[in-house]
Amino acid sequence: MRETVIEIRKLYKSFGENDVLRGVDLDLYKGENLVVLGKSGSGKSVLIKILVQLLKQDEGYINILGKDLSKLSLRELNQLRLKIGFAFQASALYDSMTVRENLEFPLTRNIKNLTRKEIDYKVEHLLDSVGLPQTINQMPSELSGGQKKRIGVARTLILNPEIMFYDEPTAGLDPITCIDINNLINQVREEYKTSSIVITHDLTCAKVTGDRMAVLVEGQFKAVGSFEEVFENATDPNIKSFYDYNFIK
Ligand SMILES: Nc1ncnc2c1ncn2[C@@H]1O[C@H](COP(=O)(O)OP(=O)(O)OP(=O)(O)O)[C@@H](O)[C@H]1O
């Protein structure tokens, strides 16, 4: 039996007449990268927002790291959120801060009594991990798109999250930089022992980073399994067309 870090059962969410999630069941296993795919508007971002309770589900059970979300106080929910790292599509760095200051910010805001030496060690170690120690005193405007994504991932990792959410990590990047980011996602799993949900439209990213794929179709996960299981032998026309349109065979 694999250890589950996120368990979702019978999750429903509608906005008026728009039934976005219609009974979602999903498990994220410890140590895996789970890729979530689905057409634009299928509800991937809504799902992630519900997982951190930025949106409230209409119905359904969610357990994260052993905690039933419906039973948590706001304080307990905030503690749980600290164990979840978000690497967003727009890497969300503060433009007026240097790379060092961007990385220090979540640390000093969330952990009190750290010494200067401890902060410097963490920042420098993280920058080494993502291969960008030379950028420490640069401003975000001086970085390439791929470098910004790497720094965004480093900033997320600085609080040692157990779970990572990557939202379209390769969007807008050239193919070589995409390879770099895919490798980084795999490296993070190995080095930091994270369990991750990767939302992407990029099937190469999905194939390279994903241990399992989960395809959201009409408000439910219609196919869950390895890349080969889900795509290469697909018979469901929704999934087949998704693969045919997106992937150069
Ligand atoms: N706060 C909201 N209020 C009303 N409708 C919303 C809200 N948030 C999302 N929706 C609707 O929910 C549906 C799913 O949106 P969502 O952003 O999750 O799609 P997605 O799969 O992430 O799409 P994309 O791949 O384009 O990012 C859409 O129809 C969207 O309009």
From TrEMBL:
<dbReference type="InterPro" id="IPR027417">
    <property type="entry name" value="P-loop_NTPase"/>
</dbReference>
<dbReference type="Pfam" id="PF00005">
    <property type="entry name" value="ABC_tran"/>
</dbReference>
<dbReference type="GO" id="GO:0016887">
    <property type="term" value="F:ATP hydrolysis activity"/>
</dbReference>
<dbReference type="GO" id="GO:0005524">
    <property type="term" value="F:ATP binding"/>
</dbReference>
<feature type="domain" description="ABC transporter">
    <location>
        <begin position="6"/>
        <end position="243"/>
    </location>
</feature>
<keyword id="KW-0813">Transport</keyword>
<dbReference type="InterPro" id="IPR003439">
    <property type="entry name" value="ABC_transporter-like_ATP-bd"/>
</dbReference>
<keyword id="KW-0067">ATP-binding</keyword>
<protein>
    <submittedName>
        <fullName>Phospholipid/cholesterol/gamma-HCH transport system ATP-binding protein</fullName>
    </submittedName>
</protein>
<keyword id="KW-0547">Nucleotide-binding</keyword>
<dbReference type="InterPro" id="IPR003593">
    <property type="entry name" value="AAA+_ATPase"/>
</dbReference>
<dbReference type="InterPro" id="IPR017871">
    <property type="entry name" value="ABC_transporter-like_CS"/>
</dbReference>
